[in-house]
Write a structure and sequence with these properties.
alpha/beta; Rossmann fold; DNA polymerase, domain 1; 6-stranded parallel sheet; two-stranded antiparallel ribbon; 8 strands; HAD_2
Length: 236
């Protein structure tokens, strides 16, 4: 099955376009070590990813609700994490196999379809990573978790991208003509709140949370994006 003629496709970054798990886990454990706290298993840290840097750090500190630590202490921990990650964000991170081929296939088959990134990762490392791997060539915009006053699953960023894409296209793009592709429940909830079509990536960082959110479509590889978008697969 495919979505009806998508005119805008918005991608999450971590767990969708790139596998950044190891660098994020290493950065969290470097932060914990800096604070004199025990390191956490990678599997545990990976389950905390998806809601932005501040929430990732809070969860690693055992403070998911934000009421067990002094805010200045949290701010210092977040700062250390971000500074470490800024230097080490490309140590082990890679683009998932098939991503570039699928983006190229969509671009070739649907010249008029616009593509963008909407992630909860801070915008500067998001853009730096996309630039480094050549992903930015496919996107008219790349917004991060600090680009707006709210993060996903609040739909504000997605709604803003729809408006921006509509202006570029010269006609209104409806939410139903928009795909939100991501690997966590956060992306599914964002799409649902905006009225967009959600596409879940089961190969990402949070397959259990994703399945529970019940996206409109589920794919097990980047090649599945072309199927949902109704374009020839790069493997065909």
């Amino acid at each position: 099955m495919s979505a009806p003629s998508p005119r805008l496709i918005v991608f999450d970054l971590d767990g969708t376009l790139i596998d950044s798990r190891q660098d994020l886990c290493n950065s969290v454990n470097a932060m914990l070590d800096h604070l004199g706290k025990p390191e956490l298993p990678d599997e545990v840290i990976a389950s905390y990813i998806g809601d932005g840097a501040s929430m990732l750090v809070r969860r690693a500190l055992g403070d998911p609700e934000g009421d067990a630590h002094d805010e200045e202490d949290v701010a210092r921990a977040v700062h250390y994490f971000l500074e470490y990650y800024r230097v080490h964000k490309l140590d082990f991170t890679y683009v998932y196999p098939g991503v570039m081929d699928s983006l190229a296939a969509i671009r070739a088959a649907r010249h008029e379809t616009l593509m963008a990134v909407l992630t909860n990762k801070p915008v500067n490392p998001s853009r730096d990573i996309c630039d480094y791997f050549g992903l930015s060539d496919y996107f008219f915009q790349n917004y991060g978790g600090n680009s707006f006053h709210t993060k996903k699953p609040d739909p504000h960023g997605l709604v803003a991208l729809i408006a921006e894409a509509s202006a570029l296209a010269g006609s209104r793009i409806a939410p139903a003509e928009t795909l939100m592709i991501g690997d966590t429940d956060v992306d599914v909830l964002t799409a649902r709140a905006a009225g967009a079509v959600s596409v879940g990536c089961s190969f990402g960082l949070a397959p259990e949370r994703l399945a529970a959110a019940r996206p409109d479509f589920m794919v097990d590889s980047p090649a599945g994006w072309t199927r949902v978008a109704g374009v020839p697969s790069p493997l065909s």
